[in-house]
Design goal:
The chain is mainly α and 201 residues long. 73% of the residues lie in helices and 0% in strands.
Length: 201
């Protein structure tokens, strides 16, 4: 007995559904990046895609689920552009992240706005972002220690404090750049690294 052929159109229907999901994500970046996740409405996202709110909820069950996918794709794009840090290559990887963020204004704006919103302890993403920063700092501290062992990072730098300062400088430069695009994020980040982290030649 042979398998019955798959109904025609199923593959095309799946591909169309995936295209619609991606269009929803792309428009959510615009809406959330302008208004934030709290104020940005699913209705506006749906309208921009040409769907009803109910039609959008067929693809994403909630605003939180949609934002989680936006954030996942943002992280994926950053990793693809900058790579994952290995051993003591953290500083070079972070330079690439800063350079990449300067080419993705919508996503950079969204991330900056949502982090500010999430500083409110009552915000649904508050603990998730706090944990995100804790994990990032712990990883960075380990990599900075490896850099110190290799003689690439100054020995008198405290890895735990430096790890927090790295993300603080990146976030601060992003905020200034969003306000004034003449701010050269890659050059300023490189200056910070040269003056604070790198071992003298």
């Amino acid at each position: 007995m042979t398998d019955a052929p798959a109904p025609r159109g199923r593959r095309g229907s799946y591909a169309k559904g995936q295209q619609t999901r991606q269009r929803i994500v792309d428009e959510a970046v615009v809406v959330f990046g302008r208004s934030g996740v709290t104020a940005g409405s699913l209705r506006e996202v749906a309208t921009r895609v040409g769907l009803t709110p109910a039609g959008l909820l067929h693809h994403f069950a909630s605003k939180e689920e949609l934002f989680a996918e936006v954030l996942r794709q943002r992280d994926e794009r950053v990793r693809a552009a900058a790579g994952d840090p290995h051993e003591h290559a953290l500083v070079e990887q972070m330079r690439k992240v800063v350079a990449h963020n300067a080419t993705t204004r919508g996503l950079t704006s969204l991330y900056t706005l949502v982090v500010a919103e999430a500083s409110d302890p009552a915000h649904p993403s508050h603990e998730a972002f706090a944990e995100r920063y804790r994990r990032s700092a712990a990883t960075a501290a380990d990599l900075l220690r490896a850099g110190q062992a290799a003689g690439e990072v100054r020995a008198d730098v405290d890895p735990e404090r430096a790890a927090r300062l790295l993300s603080a400088v990146m976030d601060g430069l992003q905020q200034q750049w969003l306000l004034d695009e003449s701010v050269d994020m890659p050059a300023l980040f490189a200056e910070f690294v040269r003056g604070y982290l790198e071992s003298p030649a």
